[in-house]
Design a protein that fits this description.
The protein is mainly alpha-helical and about 450 residues long. The chain has 2 domains: about 375 residues, no CATH class; about 50 residues, no CATH class. About 60% of the residues lie in helices and about 5% in strands. The strands form 2 sheets. Strands 1-2 form a two-stranded antiparallel ribbon. Strands 3-4 form a two-stranded antiparallel sheet. About 50% of the residues are buried.
Length: about 450
């Protein structure tokens, strides 16, 4: 019996996987990350008044994510980590992107001027991870397992909150936390857990897909799932910089700073992915994976800007899927990439998947996001913790989770004394009817619950 089977993996990192199980495994990664990919363009588009271009922005976001994921798994010319590293639209850039768009609008620019400026700036800012990827060796002294593990655990904790909200029906649902929503999510979760524990590899490979399918059928039978229009556009080809190319240093600087922050998150995601894939995290091969992974993040962001999609980053969600299915084969990443590209080319397919009921998605993602937390804890505890390490972890969890739980704590530190309150990916100011820098309303006025990468 192979080492992969001893470690709980059905397919190791370099093992080739037959097409059918590879497709099922890839589909589960896509389902886990789909909402996270399409939500940022929905929020940004609705806030900046880009409603006429929203379908195009969503399609290009899916396509850019697919290209980035394909690059990550193949590691051609040193670009990519050579693992299943799903790329998706980053929520970290929401604030600076909307602020930049508002600045262009204040200067008298229209929607197309905003997009020309934003995507031009994003293209140049993508050079930040490209350059930083060449200096991973000294950065490893900063990005220790204590730091990266804490980041991954906190990402997982924030994702669990999103799962619970979706499980209850979504923040704006009239029947929020109703027994029907709770039962629907619980049923979906139960099917996934049951199949994930099965010894039959086919049941384990298809656990998430089957769980979501069962949940959708149950939702349809109970009247909670209604298909809506899939749109009029059946096929959409990309165009490079269709709105032109503009640049402004004042907008570039904050975007570049956010790019640096995203590198820390990516290092944590790549470290967790390596551990789950049963790879060393303290050898030259791992350092090469980090270099290639960060470089691919930058190249992926460049591709995204050229297609008019917002910046990409390595998602944490798929680490949970790897652990659930036991499939770490990097060749699955090719399937994920192709599926996402096809979703971008054929918008109705993505629109169909977007209509999966929120309680079903909440139940399906709950255990996967829990696995992300476990992966972070695993990184932290690779070696015995010193007193200093315990202090660092404690402070990280206080800042990352505690302050977010009580937003009023940040009131004295706000620029004008008003309290900045963040709801998921949305920020409002207490004592004001305005939303700064972006509104909490998504397309059509519905609240959108984010899934961050």
């Amino acid at each position: 019996m192979s080492d992969e089977h001893h470690s709980g993996l059905l397919y190791g990192l370099e093992q080739r996987i037959p097409p059918l199980p590879a497709f099922f495994s890839a589909l589960q990664h896509v389902l886990a990350g789909l909402v996270g990919i399409i939500t940022p363009p929905l929020i940004i588009g609705a806030t900046l008044g880009l409603g006429d271009w929203l379908p195009y922005l969503i399609s290009m976001s899916l396509m850019a994510s697919g290209i980035g994921t394909f690059l990550q798994s193949n590691r051609v010319w040193g670009i990519g980590a050579g693992m299943i590293c799903m790329q998706g639209t980053s929520f970290a850039f929401l604030g600076v992107t909307v602020a930049g768009g508002m600045w262009v609008k204040a200067q008298g620019g229209g929607p197309q001027d905003m997009m020309a400026m934003l995507f031009g700036v994003n293209f140049v800012a993508a050079l930040v991870p490209v350059i930083v990827s060449r200096f991973i060796e000294p950065l490893k002294k900063i990005f220790t397992p204590i730091i990266t593990g804490s980041v991954i655990a906190l990402i997982g904790i924030s994702l669990i909150k999103v799962s619970v909200i979706n499980w209850c029906g979504g923040e704006k649902a009239e029947d929020f936390a109703s027994m029907s929503n709770i039962a629907l999510g619980a049923g979906t979760l139960g099917v996934i857990v049951l199949l994930s524990c099965a010894k039959n590899r086919w049941l384990r490979l298809s656990s998430v897909v089957v769980g979501i399918a069962v949940g959708c059928i149950a939702a349809g039978l109970s009247g909670q799932f209604h298909l809506h229009s899939l749109g009029d556009t059946l096929f959409r080809l990309p165009t490079l910089f269709p709105f032109g190319f503009q640049f402004n240093s004042a907008i570039f600087l904050p975007v570049a700073l956010v790019s640096l922050v995203c590198i820390l998150e990516a290092v944590g995601d790549l470290t967790a992915n390596s551990l789950i894939s049963q790879q060393s995290v303290d050898d030259r091969a791992f350092r090469n994976r980090l270099k290639g992974g960060i470089l691919a993040d930058g190249v992926s962001c460049m591709v995204a800007a050229m297609l008019c999609a917002f910046p990409n980053t390595t998602f944490a969600q798929n680490n949970g899927v790897i652990q659930m299915t036991g499939v770490a084969s990097r060749y699955v990443g090719r399937y994920i990439g192709v599926i996402l590209i096809l979703l971008g080319l054929f918008p109705p397919v993505g629109e169909l998947l977007r209509q999966i009921p929120a309680p079903v998605l909440g139940g399906a993602t709950m255990v996967m996001f829990g696995c992300v937390v476990a992966a972070g804890i695993r990184i932290i505890t690779q070696t015995p913790l010193s007193r200093r390490d315990v202090l660092i972890v404690g402070l990280a969890f206080w800042r990352g989770s505690g302050v977010e739980s009580v937003p009023a704590f940040s009131q004295p530190f706000s620029a004008d004394g008003r309290r900045s309150v963040r709801f998921g990916g949305h920020q409002r100011w207490a004592g004001s009817d305005s939303a700064e820098p972006y509104s909490a309303a998504g397309a059509g006025g519905d609240e959108i619950v984010k899934e961050s990468g």
